[in-house]
Amino acid sequence: MFLFKRKLAPVAKLYEQALQVEKALEALCDYLSSLKEERAGAVAAHVRQARKWTLLLEQAAGAQPAGAQPAGTLTAADLSRLAGLFELIAGEAESALDEMRRFAVKPEEPLRELARFSLRMLQEISGAVACFSGARRTAAQPLIRARQSAARGEKAFLEFRRELLNRPNAVEILKIQEIYKRFSNIFDNGHQAVEILGDALVLK
């Protein structure tokens, strides 16, 4: 299996990593709805897989020739930055889950909604990455939708944080605010990934 992964084209490796991050967020959404322990375990498992792909992508990026690339092509620097961003997103999802359990924070609707926005964003980013293996121009629409999901998620984060500050329990506010911030980081990293992919398509 490891040898098979090494033989994949760099963009295919990036797509596989994006899928693992997407699955981690999907498992997080499931856990927030069901509180089933196996879904919490699935989050950690997919995050581990995403981190393994980072190493493979770094190796693939190092093997690519330096210099300018034609439009619609991801450079070695692009691959490296995207791999790092995907790993950061996976790590933030795992940290959000860990903190929620450690602080005994109930999965209220705001947390579930932030997780859903995160998942939708990653689904669109994964779709855009897949397009780079074939009809690259078709990546435009999923990138636009990913950018919209990130913006809506960040807007929801700001609204939920304002509402949170009205609660009487200061300790509860601090705990939940830390978890909210994890999702804000996910949206920020996702937005950066969209910008990198968009620049490769000369999208502005």
How would you concisely characterize the structure shown here?
By secondary structure, this protein is mainly alpha-helical. Helices cover 80% and strands 0% of the residues. It has a single domain (10-62, 72-202), classed as Phosphate transport system protein phou homolog 2, domain 2 (Methane Monooxygenase Hydroxylase, Chain G, domain 1), CATH 1.20.58.220.
- The CATH architecture category equals Up-down Bundle
Counted by DSSP, the helix tally is 7
CATH class categorisation: Mainly Alpha
Oligomer: single chain
Class inferred from helices and paired strands: mainly alpha
Looking at this structure, what is the CATH superfamily?
Phosphate transport system protein phou homolog 2, domain 2
The CATH topology is Methane Monooxygenase Hydroxylase, Chain G, domain 1
Gross morphology is globular
Major sheet: size, sense and barrel closure?
A: none
Spatial extent as radius of gyration: 17 Å
Question: What fraction strand?
Answer: under 5%
How many beta-strand segments? Answer: 0
- Mean pLDDT equals 89
H/E element order: HHHHHHH
Work out the count of structural domains: 1
What share of the residues lie within helices?
over 70%
End-to-end distance? 39 Å
Unreliably modeled segments = none
